[in-house]
Design brief:
Elements: H1 35-42, E1 45-51, H2 52-63, E2 97-104, E3 110-117, E4 133-134, H3 147-154, H4 166-173, H5 206-210
Antiparallel strand pairs: 1-2, 2-3, 3-4
């Protein structure tokens, strides 16, 4: 029975958890897409979980222009996968997970953000909500730069002084460039003309100039 136009619109959301470490059954057709590809295509929001220590290792390799290491099933090694145990080691702990959030709007434009979720041991027992922060704001992922390092990078290293004194800067501003008629202010349309005075040492041939 069709609903009346005045009936309230019912919206539903479906949340699916997909474990990539679980082996999937063989497909009937070798050309059919994988279940993960189908879910990624149909989903509006996709949240991928990454190990924080793995993300730090990959970032350190990229900063040194090296190939990023792989972990888990991507290593292609035989054996048993062991889960990591949350053992905080103070403020420098690499515990927690990284959330890769991909949200697709109705317009088709996608938004990709990376967040950091601290482990449960960092929250007091009476706190029910978990707080996520941007991954770029984490001190281990993006450490603050030292002020001395910033100042040293701005000034090039040299054996002689490259900076100008206040007197030299004023004298440079007062230098009048020769042969530029624009400095005389001879009216509009004349600015930018370069005037050149012929000297005795100049070898000028009128016949070649006409050609």
């Amino acid at each position: 029975m069709p609903q009346s136009p005045s009936a309230p619109k019912i919206e539903s959301s479906l949340i699916v958890t997909f474990h990539q470490d679980v082996p999937r059954p063989p497909s009937f057709s070798p050309y059919s897409p994988s279940p993960l590809s189908i879910l990624t295509y149909l989903a509006t929001t996709v949240i991928r979980l990454h190990s924080f220590s793995h993300i730090l290792s990959q970032k350190a390799a990229r900063d040194r222009s090296l190939a990023a290491p792989v972990f888990g099933l991507e290593e292609g090694q035989d054996g048993v996968l062991l889960g990591r145990v949350d053992k905080p080691i103070g403020s420098g702990s690499v515990g927690g997970v990284v959330l890769e959030l991909e949200h697709r709007r109705k317009s088709g434009r996608g938004v990709l953000e990376w967040y950091f979720l601290p482990p449960a041991s960092h929250y007091p027992p009476n706190q029910a909500k978990e707080i996520v922060t941007l991954l770029d704001d984490h001190p281990l992922y993006h450490p603050p730069e030292d002020l001395d390092t910033q100042n040293s990078e701005e000034e090039p290293e040299s054996t002689f002084e490259l900076r100008l004194t206040e007197r030299q800067r004023k004298e440079r501003e007062g230098v009048v460039l020769p042969y530029f008629d624009a400095q005389n202010g001879n009216g509009p349309g004349e600015g930018g003309r370069i005037l050149y005075d012929m000297g005795e040492e100049d070898d000028f041939d009128e016949e070649e100039d006409e050609i």
